[in-house]
Amino acid sequence: MQVMNELLVILAENSVCVLLQMLLIIPLAAALLLFIIPDRFQMAKGFAALAVTLYLGYIAIGLWSVSPQMVPQGDLIIRDCLAILNIDLLQKAGESVTFTVDGLSKLIVLSISVLSLLILVYSLLYNKSKRVSHFYSWFLLTLGCSYGAVLADNLILFVIFWGILGITLYKLIPGKDEASSAAAKKTMILIGASDTIMLLGIAILWRLTDTISMNGISVETNNILAVTAFLALLVGSFTKAGAFPFHTWVPDFAENSPATSSALLPASLDKLLGIYFLARITGDMFVMSDGMKVALLSVGVLTIITAVLMALMQHDYRRLLGYHAVSQVGYMILGFGIGSILGVVAGLFHMINHATYKSGLFLAAGAIERQTGRNDISDLGGLSAAMPVTFASALVFAMSISGVPPFNGFASKWMIYQGIIESGSGAGISSQLWIVWLGLAVLGSALTLASFVKFIGGIFLGRRDPALAGVREVPVLMWLPMALLALLCVFLGVFATGLVIPKLFTPVVGPFTFSGLWSSSLVSLLVLISIVLGFLIYLAMGTKRFRTGDIFIGGEKIEKLGASYPAPEFYKTFTEFSLFSRIYRMAEAKVFDIYDLSKKGVLWLSGTLSTAHTGLLPAYVIWVCAGLIIMLLIMT
Amino acid sequence: MNPLIPLLVAIPLAGAFLTMIIGRFITGIPRYIALATLLLTAFISFWLLVAGGGDQSVYIMGGWEPVNGIPIGIHLVHDGFSALVLCIISLIGLLSVLYSISYIARYTSGNYFYALFCLMIAGMNGVVLSGDIFNIFVFLEISAISSYALVAFGVEKNELEATLKYQVLGAVASFMVLFAIGFIYWSTKTLNIADIRAVFSEGHDRSYYLLIQILLLTGFGLKAAIIPFHAWLPDAHSSAPSPISAMLSGVLIKAVGIYVIIRLFFNMFEITGAMAVMITTLGALSMAVGVFLAIGQWDIKRLLAYHSISQMGYVVMSAGIGMTLLARGVRPEVAALAITGGIFHLVNHAAFKGLLFLNAGAIEYSAGTRDLHEMGGLARPMPVTSATSLAASFSISGIPPFNGFFSKLIIIVAAVMARFYLLAALAAVVSIITLASFMKFQRYAFYNGEPGRIGKEIKEVPLPMLMSMVTLAVICLLLSLLALPAIRDAVLTPATDILIDQMKYSSQITGM
User: Fold this and answer.
1) Which residues contact A547 (CB under 8 A, 6 or more apart)?
2) In chain A, is it the N or the C terminus that has fewer CB atoms within a 10 Å radius of its CB?
């Protein structure tokens, strides 16, 4: 009884320290608890997870008012609990467990809370058909570890949380059939490999600076060791966020896992974490040299262009979204590559925007898949009337991701362009090449629009397949999160300069100014006015003189293609273009996939080595003798 | 003089004979005798670990006290390092026996199995405890001969071929060890490890000393399956019944191979730079080559067996890094870190590799195959096996929060701190390939389609087998706690200290 009282006293203490630990311990404990409950009570588990998530969101909002500080966890809750029972196992451990609460981590914690809550609400009905076993446990583990990774200041602690996220990612793919088990394997190998490489980077940092506290590290990238550490940590961040050339797990994951898994990890949380860590690496822990900046910027544009080109030729809408989840990361990297305050803000803003619209898009994709059971854009069409809310939200998301004003994607992309132009006046190679970065970034944005025309047109517009006549809108618990995300997209876009940037981002980086005049609300107003004017003109002119006819391409009617026109056909122009066609063929053969390349190399070496193992005993005895003799020769 | 120490050898030895005698008259009893034996051994080992607090305690057989600082009797030495290895032996042994209760029921002559099992435990405990090099050889042979018989337990073609190779190469190893012991005795006139060190430190012929070192390294390297002396291991470890594979890979190669190498090269021989580099190289070579050999395998148990080579490479390499630093006399705290990492990994490997072999056994028990091509979709009919093997796979691949992550982290950090950057990078690459090959195992065994193609009803294995696997999986998770400073200081640091501090080991034995 007394023990209970002492526990309650500890928990009632409302310090930052306790808040932080609650943020970690509650989801982890709840996740373990939910593992015990069988999946038959799926709904009950879902609501329990919802309650936990809501409470965590409440704590996260409470955290927002905390002033930036380092929190050394001298008094760990678990340690106190154990101390009551007279066990002091965690003595000395508390010193190395440090957390940091600053503008950046508060921002990410808040975004994680909001996005995960919306995705969880959606998944209550979506996961009724048991797509992933123990979904809610893995969900809560993901949530707790994400909070942990964002708040941790100690790099080892950080990498532990970061690594557990790899496990949850792996377990969120069902793996039942051949393709999805291959995707799970590939995902885990790439993520695990990057984590191991990060360990190397952390070890080198430790050796260089004698500390593993992120706040205490500031290294110039001017010698080979520092550069290696920098690159090793970048690999971790890039793989998590899905940047070229470590991105190849993202499309596979998106294609083979349920929409909630894709929306939760690759679309939002992994991006938030990967870019968060990128911000820590480039902003806090290292001082980038010009060469490093060029490297980052090149990776950024390469990511944008390669992924968007791959996205253009996809038929499966989930895979298409997966490639876009990669392509958008390029913009964020560009922001950090510029390195100016404007660039960093733009990168962070784009990260948050991307999380909203991309998780929204995956949720929309999940809704379509749930209602139609089809994954190929060519088989779909004309769903706008049947699923109006999904259509409207998907349209907003698509315009956001393509950078159409006044949505949020435009705001952040515009800031990135501004940042690049501004950096053009600086010195160094990275600045001299500003026009290259700018041109490719804008081209990427245009190609994104092109592929989303396919997405929207192919799925929602056109004529509906008669077999899909019975399709209905998803239940309210599923469309509400999408609608809210869409509203968020609009809100973040319209009030970007007036409200969002000063309130959310200025605390992170400090005050800064935009180059030139730009007010997002004004722009939105102008866009609205022009749309209204255009509509009025349309009405005033009384333009009723249009006719309906059959679809034709190049003057030829297409009749044999069935009820709806297959949108992907239009994009064949790209793949058949002679320069691209070879590259596309090579990409299809996975020549550029770092995973398949290394796999080939490893298996070749493995085969070569195992040919020596003939199974003949005399040979083995000779090896032993040879080993002995060689050792003797070397040593004497 | 702790009277419990000799019991660790005596109890399993008695258990072996009792099993045979009682088993002749009453069937069905031997397994419980073996279980009780192991339970008792495990209890004593853990009691000694906890109560001993890492202090060295010496038991002199027959009470032959040292005369003028020269030990004349046989010493059993229990210190921080041997305490850890003893705990591993008895714990994995206990869980393997528990597992065998269902698993071995399919074989005939279970009596022999349990008797040999206890004998093997007695041999390993003897090797670990003995402070006398000839005694080490005797116990080494006891454990080796019982393991030859156990590998052949299935008496099929494969098993017999494997055990033949194992015996021949084992005999080569024993010959070299005996040869080296002869040399040692010839020049020092003593067999006690501490005393040998004392005599050698008074002066020795360098090339003679080197010959002894290399003969012992080759002999015990063969037992530890360090490349290029590894060729027997994949056959032997994959042909044995699974609980025995778990013992062989999880414990035997450590107790009679790695443990002895580390013990002799830290506590008996003077640490020299050249030898340290040689050991580091052998470790790195095993680590790298082993994993490449492993990833190409489609037989689960062969895959696991090759991984044992690779994982032992980590241990040997980090011990070698520690030796190198000690030989140079620089950064002793990094040397301690490297050795701690190695010992930590040794303990961890026992847990996860034991578990993996038990998982492989469970799959073989239910699905009747060891070939990854023929499996698939076992996650649904065998949820516990699937979950525990996932835990073990993540452990061996170094994914947090499992134990393998922490030991690999320490090893990589220590290598970087010691400025062996390439070795650190190699350790990381090997870890990645390990992950890849275990993801392959997971994919083809548990996912990737329906279990229908095996063509029979697949059920989860019986309760005793499940209990062993779940316990080991929990241990895999709990061993992570060894990374916490308070627990590390209580468990791992004494083991490191006894290796680094030369005087500490010999002071009690020679009575000085």
Assistant:
1) none
2) N
Closest partner CB to B172 (pick from A621, A632, A635): A621
Structural domain boundaries, residue A601: 595-635
A536 is a domain residue: no
A348 phi/psi in degrees, rounded to 5: -65, -40
Burial annotation A519-530 (CB, 10 A radius, 16+ → b, else e): ebeebbeebeee
Classify residue A79: in a domain, yes or no: yes
Judging contacts by C-beta atoms under 8 Å, the chain B residues touching residue A196 are 398, 408, 428, 431-432, 435
B177 reaches A (C-beta below 8 A): no
Q: In chain B, which residue's Cα lies nearest the Cα of A158?
A: B400
Q: Does A147 fall in a domain?
A: yes
In terms of CA atoms, which chain A residue is nearest residue B229? Answer: A624
CB contact under 8 A, B210 and A635: yes
How far B379 CA sits from the closest chain A CA (Å)? 9
> Is B272 in the A-facing interface, judged by CB distances under 8 Å?
no
A188 and chain B in contact, CB less than 8 A: yes
CA distance linking residue B487 with residue B478, whole number of Å = 11
pLDDT given for residue B60 in this prediction: 87
DSSP structural state of residue A242:
T
Predicted TM-score (pTM) above 0.90: yes
Q: Is residue A540's pLDDT more than 90?
A: no
Across the interface, whether the CB atoms of A185 and B440 are under 8 A apart is answered: yes
> Cβ distance B262 to B499 under 8 Å?
yes
Task: Show the CA angle centred on residue B314, arms to residues B333 and A192, nearest 5°.
Answer: 105
Residue B243, Cβ density class (10 Å: 0-12 exposed, 13-18 middle, ≥19 buried): buried
Four-CA torsion B251, B253, B256, B262, nearest 10 degrees: -100
What is the per-residue pLDDT for A275?
Answer: 92
Mean pLDDT over A419-447 rounds to 86
| Chain B contact for A588 (CB, 8 A cutoff) | no
Of A204, A606, A623, the CB nearest to B228: A623
Question: Judging by DSSP bridges, how do beta strands A286-287 and A219-220 pair with one another?
Answer: parallel
Q: Do B168 and A617 touch (CB under 8 A)?
A: yes
Say yes or no for a CB contact (<8 Å) between A199 and B408: yes
Question: What number is the average pLDDT over the span A93-112?
Answer: 81
Higher pLDDT, A353 or A42: A353
In which element (H, E) is residue B497 found?
Answer: helix B485-500
**Which A residues, 254 through 273, put their C-beta within 8 Å of a C-beta on chain B?**
none
Does some domain include residue A144?
A: yes
B362-416 tens-digit pLDDT: 999 988 888 888 888 888 889 999 999 999 999 999 998 899 999 999 999 999 9
Q: What per-residue confidence (pLDDT) applies to A343?
A: 87
Q: Residue A185's CB: how many other CB atoms inside 10 A?
A: 27
Q: Do B293 and A613 touch (CB under 8 A)?
A: yes
Query: In chain B, what residues touch A626 (CB-CB under 8 Å)?
Result: 228
Instruction: Determine whether the interchain pair B481/A192 forms a contact, defined as Cβ–Cβ distance below 8 Å.
Output: no
Running DSSP on this structure, what letter comes out for residue B78?
A: E
Which of A606, A609, A622 to substitute to test the interface with B, most B CBs within 10 Å? Answer: A606
Check CB contact under 8 Å for B292 and A609: yes
Give the count of domains, chain A: 2
How many residue pairs from chains A and B have C-beta atoms closer than 8 A? Answer: 177
| The pLDDT of residue A90 is above 70 | no
Q: Which two tokens stand for residue A586?
A: 């090579």
CA A514 to chain centre: 27
- Which long-range contacts (C-beta less than 8 Å, at least 24 apart) are formed by A626-633? A626/B228, A627/B218, A627/B221, A627/B228, A627/B229, A628/B176, A628/B214, A628/B215, A628/B218, A631/B214, A631/B217, A631/B218, A631/B278, A632/B210, A632/B211, A632/B214
Give the torsion through C-alpha atoms of A533, A536, A540, A541, to 10 deg. 60
